[in-house]
Amino acid sequence: MVLPFRILMVVLLLTAVIALQVFLSRRKAWWPGLVLPAIEVAYSIFAIVSAIVGYYEVYGKGVPVTASLIRDTFLAFVQCNILTLVLLAIYFVCRHGQKRKKQLDKMNIQDL
């Protein structure tokens, strides 16, 4: 019974975030639509830095830099930013629609 409730809560939360992103992206100013993607990027950087600091606090030594560490860090960064890419896609789709509508309005005014 707990699992369906969690899935429902995640779906509702994602729906609310996407609706908020659409609302912010349709604003007249360009910057409100970039707030949520910026928060997501900041969160992913914070998550990676906190993992490195946590390793240092547990083991008392620095993280050994290896090729697998760099690969894993990059993959973690990409995974954390999947939602960022979705939010940026929504932003650019909404802004393109506004730009097109603005151009059509300008053409209609010139036709008069």
Description:
It is a single chain. The chain is an all-alpha fold and 112 residues long. The chain has helices at 2-25, 35-59, 67-80, 82-111. Helix 1 (2-25) packs parallel to helix 4 (82-111), helix 2 packs antiparallel against helix 3 and helix 2 (35-59) runs antiparallel to helix 4 (82-111). The mean pLDDT is 89.
The structure class reads mainly alpha
Q: How many strands?
A: 0
Percent of residues in β-strands: under 5%
> Could you tell me the radius of gyration in angstroms?
21 Å
Bin the helical content: over 70%
In angstroms, what separates the terminal alpha carbons? 63 Å
Number of helices: 4
Shape: elongated
Task: Quote the average pLDDT.
Answer: 89
- List low-confidence stretches: none
Order of helices and strands: HHHH
Q: Please outline the major beta sheet.
A: none
Tell me briefly what this model is:
The chain contains 4 helices and no strands.
Structural key phrases:
mainly alpha; about 0% strand; about 110 residues
